[in-house]
Write a structure and sequence with these properties.
single chain, 277 residues, alpha/beta, Rossmann fold, ten-stranded mixed beta sheet, 10 strands
């Protein structure tokens, strides 16, 4: 299914250009409209005056800082639009984190694809609300991405989970433009069977082939490496322009404590990653 509406989440002026350029490249191929979303969040800290009322100067400062940040992001977005021929619109939201997220998520649910920058350092959960509640796949663009490359070589990290199944089929519009697609299964079972390893990815490969896609499969053991490292290494060896995977196979809290695959990749990603939950 072609991508016709792309929602881009803009959180920093500095990361606006790479996110927009990814959206623009996909939009030009698919004839899509780009909706730029920014949540201007104002959450006053519990700073009280002697009368136990919120300190008005603190609140005013927070509003001014949020408005200034929003203006910088809008300026960066408009500069990108001025150099582009894409169909675009700017859609800001203002309020507390809950209120701003609610409006943003409503817009996300009406999109075919969401694009965002890799979360800020120290804030891996930055886009969790959209990932968990938006119901749409999110394409994360790494900080190190300088120039957007078309998705010619795609790696699908297949573990049979609901998340990767959704991410794979929600990205069919992108997969049709790929020249090579590899389905990688990391076999972590102690009791290994060649037949079981083959069947783990053969069915999804056959399903994608019915969509006219050329797909190969690969199964490998982690060899005492974290699964996140296996995926990153294979992306490098395969020369992947995009990796598709499910998000948060375990709880977010457990991932933060023990370093799950989603958490680690969002911190260290060097290749664009498309995730769904």
């Amino acid at each position: 299914m072609p991508v016709k509406t792309i929602a881009i989440i803009l959180t920093q002026a500095e990361t606006t250009r790479p996110v927009f350029e990814a959206a623009e490249a996909i939009a030009s191929e698919q004839g899509a409209h780009i909706v730029a979303l920014h949540g201007e969040v104002i959450d006053p800290p519990p700073v009280l005056s002697p009368l136990d009322l919120p300190d008005s100067s603190v609140i005013a400062g927070l509003y001014d800082a949020a408005a200034e940040k929003s203006a910088r992001i809008k300026e960066a977005f408009e500069a990108c639009v001025a150099r582009s021929g894409a169909s675009c619109e700017w859609r800001p939201f203002k309020g507390s984190s809950g209120a701003a997220n609610a409006g943003l998520i409503d817009s996300v649910r009406a999109a075919d694809l969401v694009i965002a920058s890799q979360p800020q350092r120290g804030n891996v959960s930055e886009h969790d609300a959209v990932l968990f509640e938006g119901g749409r796949p999110i394409l994360f663009i790494p900080w190190i991405e300088k120039d957007f490359k078309k998705f010619k070589r795609v790696l699908i990290a297949w573990d049979g989970s609901r998340g990767v199944a959704r991410a794979t089929f929600d990205s069919l519009g992108l997969l049709h433009a790929a020249e090579e697609i590899e389905i990688l299964t990391v076999d972590t079972r102690a009791d290994k069977s060649d037949e079981a390893s083959y069947l783990a990815s053969a069915e999804i490969a056959a399903a994608l082939a019915r969509h006219g896609l050329k797909v190969t499969t690969r199964t490998q053991a982690p060899e005492k490496l974290p699964i996140s490292a296996v995926l990153e290494n294979r992306c490098s060896d395969f020369g992947a322009d995009l990796m598709i995977m499910g998000a948060y196979g375990t709880s977010r809290i457990m991932e933060r404590i023990f370093g799950g695959v989603t958490h680690v990749l969002l911190e260290s990603m060097t290749t664009p990653v498309l995730m769904a939950r």
